[in-house]
Amino acid sequence: MLPLTPVLVAVVCILIVWIFKPADRSLRRKKREPGAPPWVDEDLNDSTDLHQGQEDADERPESEEDVEHIPFSHTRYPEKEMAKRSQEFYELLNKRRSVRFISNEQVPMEVINNVIKAAGTAPSGAHTEPWTFVLVKDPDVKHKIREIIEKEEEINYMKRMGHRWVTDLKKLRTNWVKEYLDTAPVLILIFKQVHGFTPSGRKKVHYYNEISVSIACGILLAALQVTQTIVLKELALASFLNLQ
Ligand SMILES: Cc1cc2nc3c(=O)[nH]c(=O)nc-3n(C[C@H](O)[C@H](O)[C@H](O)COP(=O)(O)O)c2cc1C
């Protein structure tokens, strides 16, 4: 057996530290924010206002009796019909494209209202429905919105996104110029409500607000596709196809 010289002891100590360091690091990564509930995964942490101190202390929480009962209605299709409907739905959604050239043709308000109502059927954290849809038709307001977005997008491309992101986007030939924000007859602005208000004006927690709003956006896109609401410029469609 080797005698335990000071040098050997030092080497053994360094080895032990080296072996346990990665494990320690991974433990540290998983450490939760103080006060955060254990079920909030870091990836899902979207600035939802979860601080107990800000919750409404004296407000009576909504009880089961306060919640309006909405009956569940369901149509059961034969297997063949289900397969046909799912195939048709897939084919329709598969035609959706993120277009950057939009016609100025008017869209009936009834259709716009219906697609927004469809988006509002989305599930949401604790049924908080943390979204606001704002319709903009006024050309001056649309233009002001375009200016704000283009200014921010230019900073994104030049500074915030970084080289890798900007390089990855090159194949899509996107940039910060968004002419279609002036051209489209209607803009739908979608806001997430990071918190709401109780009847007495206190802050109300909106759980998973960003995820809930994202699901609503997905349904909105599907509804726009099903109704074929987004009309492309003919010429633009051709140049977009060129881009593929
Ligand atoms: C979260 C998210 C962010 C996006 N950001 C932009 C964007 O800043 N500019 C843009 O032109 N397209 C943007 N897109 C559209 C994507 O580029 C597009 O979905 C992708 O290229 C696939 O094309 P498709 O939507 O036609 O299937 C974004 C899409 C998502 C889901």
UniProtKB/TrEMBL annotation:
EC id: 1.21.1.1
Pfam families linked to this entry: Nitroreductase
Cofactor needs: FMN
GO biological process, one term: tyrosine metabolic process
Regions of compositional bias (Acidic residues) in chain numbering: 55-67
Stretches for region Disordered: 30-77
First-level EC class: oxidoreductase
Bias type Basic and acidic residues, positions: 68-77
GO cellular component terms, semicolon-separated: plasma membrane
Keywords: Flavoprotein, FMN, Membrane, Oxidoreductase, Transmembrane, Transmembrane helix
Gene3D superfamilies tied to this protein: NADH Oxidase (3.40.109.10)
Superkingdom field: Eukaryota
An example Gene Ontology molecular-function term: iodotyrosine deiodinase activity
Reaction(s) the record says it catalyses: 3-iodo-L-tyrosine + iodide + NADP(+) = 3,5-diiodo-L-tyrosine + NADPH + H(+); L-tyrosine + chloride + NADP(+) = 3-chloro-L-tyrosine + NADPH; bromide + L-tyrosine + NADP(+) = 3-bromo-L-tyrosine + NADPH; iodide + L-tyrosine + NADP(+) = 3-iodo-L-tyrosine + NADPH
Record-annotated Nitroreductase domain positions: 94-221
InterPro entries given in the database record: Nitroreductase, Nitroreductase-like, Nitroreductase/BluB
TM stretches of this protein: 6-23, 211-231
Family of the protein in this entry: Belongs to the nitroreductase family.
Function recorded in the entry: Catalyzes the dehalogenation of halotyrosines such as 3-bromo-L-tyrosine, 3-chloro-L-tyrosine, 3-iodo-L-tyrosine and 3,5-diiodo-L-tyrosine. During thyroid hormone biosynthesis, facilitates iodide salvage by catalysing the oxidative NADPH-dependent deiodination of the halogenated by-products of thyroid hormone production, monoiodotyrosine (L-MIT) and diiodotyrosine (L-DIT). The scavanged iodide can then reenter the hormone-producing pathways. Acts more efficiently on 3-iodo-L-tyrosine than 3,5-diiodo-L-tyrosine.
Name of the featured protein: Iodotyrosine deiodinase 1
Gene: IYD
